[in-house]
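SEVERITY: medium
COMPONENT: batch folding queue
REPORTER: lab tech (J.R.)

DESCRIPTION
The queue accepted two submissions in a row. Attaching both inputs and their returned structure tokens so the on-call engineer can compare them side by side.

ATTACHMENT 1
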Amino acid sequence: MDLRYLRYFIAVAEERSFTAAAERLNTAQPSISQQIKKLEDVYVGTPLFRRDKHHVELTEAGRVFLAEARTILSSVDRAIALARHAAKAQIGHLAIGFVPGAEGKVFPHILPRLRMRCPGIQLTLRSLTTPEQFDALRKRDIDVAFLRPPVGDRALSYEVVLQDEIVAAVPAVHRIASCERVSVAQLAELPLVQVSRSAAPAIHDLAERTAAEAGVIFGEVIETDSVLGTLNAVGAGLGFCFTPDYVRQICPATVAIRSLDIDPLLQIDLLVAFRTGDDTPALQVFLDLLRTWIAERQPVALPAE
């Protein structure tokens, strides 16, 4: 049954007049009369009103039907209101996880656009290691993650956001710091300071792969539990580390960042990951803005001469 019949019926019952009900609903009086007759004859099977030239009254069946009709419409209106509220709640909050570096390279370009698209949105920003972000995505503690590869969980989807150059961080007072570019062999003179694999598996594995490709064996290895801890150890003169180049913006004065004398340059992907099939409005708006920014950053191919 079309809910319109119920709305017409309730209006006539409350106004006790087909003419007043038509004015209330901004429709023609003959149309309401026809719809009420169809409701009685086709759907209910019994008169709902007693009519004469001057009065409209509910029958006993009409009184029973009125109570149920009001309940039905109230439930429908409540369902609509709850759905709209849920949509607003979804668009109103987004939890973002990120490894160090993402907040400096990505957020200044995306979050202002997100604020413009969704002025009332509430953001939660969480600095987490890549393994912690995988866990937070599965537990729904965050909605989207900026992390390092690989992504081996089929329940998660991912896209490449950008590539970071891998550089060397060395003590600023060491003679290697006077070089514009440093080779892996030069770095092997120093102990390797390395973030633990449990905290940063991609960076950890990169150091081992780089040494193997260069035919170099790093002697002493000092392990830390964070990027900041690694930089502080390098600054204290304990050794060197491989790191994405975003650390140029955050490293202490006691640390010098130098490009590697390697061709091609080492790079590592920054990925954006999210739960496969998650179609919540806030996430979809965020991903749309992110993809637009990524496309804007792509070099434009010049026509052949």
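ATTACHMENT 2
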Amino acid sequence: MSMTDPIADLLTRIRNALQGKHESVVIPKSRMKIEIVKILKDEGYIEDYDLRDDDQQGSIDIRLRYLNDGTKSITGLERVSRPGRRVYCGKGEIPQVLNGLGISILSTSVGVMTGKSCREKGVGGEVLCNIW
């Protein structure tokens, strides 16, 4: 099975695991996915993650985060830029997600970062996804 959009796959696996109230979800490892997962942890959307190596590409074990009353810490994940339709934004047009309640994750010339970091550093890039 060929994977045309690994980032959409990552978001879908997280969405499905949250839907089923799983504690963790394992996804195939890639540098881009590690960067995205790192941001999710830094922003408090997931509990933690572990990188696993195997004979092939390895995997990322993501421990999902739920609030004390059992509600999900992530209510929505949305893929913005897709292989068939790339979405780029300049430094002045970085999208606000839910009036700042959510985050957008961008791939820039200086690495993968949140929309907020992009605004601070004055860089634009490809809008990978929005999370709230």
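NOTES FROM REPORTER
The chain has two domains: 6-64, 77-131.
No errors were logged for either attachment.
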